[in-house]
Structures are given as C-alpha cells and as structure tokens.
Design goal:
By secondary structure, the protein is α/β, with parallel strands linked by helices. The protein contains 17 helices and 12 strands. Helix 10 links the parallel strand 5 and strand 6. Helix 5 packs antiparallel against helix 6. The chain is globular and about 80 Å long.
Length: 394
C-alpha cells in the first residue's frame, strides 16, 4: 500500500531514471537506505531527502567517483567544505589525466613521424609512458591525502582563536631577507608561499621540493604566474641533491616526523646550509588536539586516530635532543592558539580525515556518532593546540 508523503521504489526509479537493481544495490551496500520499510510487506519507501541524496550519488558517479568514495562523501554531506574538498580532489585527477593524454598525443605524433622518416623509435620511452599512465590509483591516494589535509586545515582556520594564521606566523618567525636562497622540503601544494607572496622580500631564490610529483604539480598550479620565482624538484629530504652550503634557509613544515631516518634528514639539511644559516622545522607537542582523541575514545575505545604519535618521533619535547648533534644554537618558538568548535560537522570531517582506524568503527554507526559529537559540541567544544617550530642555526 502506498505510504502518504513517500515514494515507492518504482516511483523513485522513474524520477531518477535508474533500475530497481541499482536501488537494491545501493540499499544492500549502505549507500542509500530507504527512510521507511513496511514491517509487514517489507516494501521500501523514500522521501524527498532520499531523492536528493540519490541525485547527488548519481552525479558523483557520473563525475568518476567510486561507490566507496561516494559513501564517504555523502555520509557527511551536511558539511559543504567536506564535499568541496572531494570535488576539488576529482578536479585535480581530471586535470592530471588531461595532462597525461596531451603527453600521449604528442608522443604518438612524434613516434608516427619517426616511423615515417624511417628513424629508430625509442620503445623504452613508450613503455615508461604506459607505466606513468597506470599511476591513477597512486595519484588518487595522494590527492585523497591532500583532501584530508585540507579538512584538518579547515578546522584550524575556521575555529582558531589566534587570528594570525599558521602560515603567516611561520613567515614572520623565519629569518627571510632579500637575496637569500631558500629550500622547503615537503612543500605540499605550496600554500605557505601563496599565502605569503605579498610579504616576501625581493630577489628570493626558492626551491620547492616534495617526495611526490603530484604535490609539486599542485604547487605549480597554486603559485600560477608567480611560479617564475620558484624552482621545483622531487626528492627525499634524506638525500638532498645539492652541494654543501647551498642555502641560507631551509624550511620543513610538519615534515620531519614523517621521515624514515630523521637523523639522516637533519644531517642533510645541515650539510646544505651555509654557515650561520637557519633550519626552521615545525612540529607538535604532546598536548596537541588531545580532546579529539579523548572524544572518539569515549565513543568507542577501539578507535585510534593515528597508529603513530608523531610527536613521539619528532616533537616539542624531544626535538632539541634530535637536532643538537647538527646545529649550534636551537630555539623553540610556540604558536599560541586553541580551538572553540560549536558545530559537529567540521569536527567529524577532521576525525574522518585522520590516519587511524576510525572509519572502521564510525561509518556504519555514523548517525549515532554524529548525534554523539553534536551533544559534545553543545554549546561548544574546546581543543588544545600545542604546536610551534625550532629555529636551528648552523
């Protein structure tokens, strides 16, 4: 029997132009559940909100997202920033694919010309090109990570009490002056430089480096026409491909704790720094964001937001001891700040973006978790921030 104010499965099929099999598949895989199931007949009924969600799912699928991606994106659809991050992620993948296909077109044209001219074709280069075209999965993982970083930055930007941004504070803390050579290791998408372009001194020579080619592509896009001030190189900071005493300033913004061999990275930085040069490396202290870990643990004590505590590898408490064999003078600068979060959605986005096992326990209980976080953020949720940087002089 038709339920007043609801759509039957047949009506939903016609409105969305999809098959009954598709609707059942989305139901079985928890992508789109009916709002009401008749207990006697097991007939499924859907609301206008369900129809809107289905239309969103079909759009994202048409844009190339996988169903697992769509589930995570639409589960927190009330957070528009979360959705925008996901769409920007897909846009970057499309842009990279366009660049790849342009390279393929040029290579095919060049190869055709070589064959026409009876010249030797470098099939090794062609094989390498085919390999590069198969890197979509790794690029997607990289951009998913970038999207996660964006979700975490968003929480800080929106709810921080210190009105000076982290990137502006780093710029103010670093000893910039006209004409110096600067190296940033682990530059990511270049946001630090984009935010500070107007305040940087003249005649800087800046090398932006990252272990990821994709991140460097993002950095070039971020800096746009201003990229002529910068050069870009892909390398691991444990093996820096520059000669001794090449730079006046080296920046590692939340990077060292990710290095496999932190001591080797410090030794390399010291080697490429000029005498009297400065190494700025930022990190966290043990109190950083502790309330969020306590929040998820109180919901389910199996949740761990990170399998490794980054500050245990290189943090405010142990950083001086790690750095002291390589630098003569080391000073800690604290970035004074805390968060007051009145809304659950950005906090949930932050939690889902972490590197731990949270999605294993949260996604299937999302409504319950969302209600739990909403209660904790009423009227607001306080979060400690414990971050800063070491200034190390060679």
């Amino acid at each position: 029997m038709k339920k007043e104010g609801y759509y039957s499965t047949g009506e939903l099929m016609k409105l969305a132009h999809i098959t009954k099999k598709t609707i059942r598949y989305y139901d079985e895989h928890n992508i789109l559940k009916p709002s009401y199931v008749d207990p006697a007949t097991r007939t499924r009924f859907y609301t206008d909100d369900d129809l809107a969600r289905l239309q969103q799912i079909l759009l994202l699928k048409a844009l190339g997202f996988s169903l697992s991606d769509i589930m995570e994106m639409t589960i927190n659809a009330s957070d528009t920033h979360f959705m925008m991050d996901s769409l920007n992620l897909q846009k970057k993948l499309v842009e990279d694919r366009i660049e790849q296909l342009q390279i393929v077109a040029r290579t095919i044209q060049e190869t055709t010309q070589l064959i026409s001219d009876h010249k030797t074709v470098n099939w090794s280069n062609m094989l390498s090109l085919i390999h590069d075209l198969g890197m979509e999965t790794s690029m997607k993982n990289q951009y998913q990570n970038a999207s996660n970083i964006s979700a975490r930055i968003h929480l800080h930007t929106r709810y921080a009490h210190n009105r000076q941004s982290w990137f502006s504070w780093i710029r103010e803390t670093a000893p910039f002056s006209a004409g110096i050579r600067v190296l940033e290791v682990g530059c990511g998408d270049g946001t630090f430089w984009k935010e500070n372009l107007d305040t940087l001194p003249d005649n800087l020579a800046v090398v932006l480096s990252d272990i990821s080619n994709g991140m460097l592509r993002d950095a070039r896009r971020t800096l746009g026409a201003d990229s002529s001030r910068f050069s870009f190189r892909t390398f691991d900071c444990e093996t820096i491909p520059y000669g001794d005493e090449s730079f006046d300033l080296v920046i590692a913004n939340h990077v060292l704790f990710y290095c496999d061999d932190i001591s080797a990275a410090c030794a390399e930085v010291a080697r490429v720094l000029k005498p009297g040069g400065t190494f700025l490396c930022s990190t966290y202290g043990q109190e950083h964001m502790k309330e969020i870990s306590q929040l998820v643990s109180s919901f389910d004590d199996r949740i761990v937001l990170s399998s490794t505590k980054l500050y245990d590898r290189f943090g405010k408490e142990n950083g001086r001891d790690i750095l002291s064999p390589y630098f003569s003078r080391i000073t800690w600068k604290q970035y004074e700040d805390f968060l007051t979060v009145p809304d659950p959605e950005p906090l949930i986005s932050y939690i889902l973006s972490c590197h731990g096992n949270q999605n294993q326990y949260i996604l299937e209980r999302y409504k319950e978790f969302s209600a739990f976080v909403k209660k904790q953020t009423d009227p607001s949720f306080h979060v400690t921030k414990d971050a800063g940087c070491f200034l190390c002089v060679k």
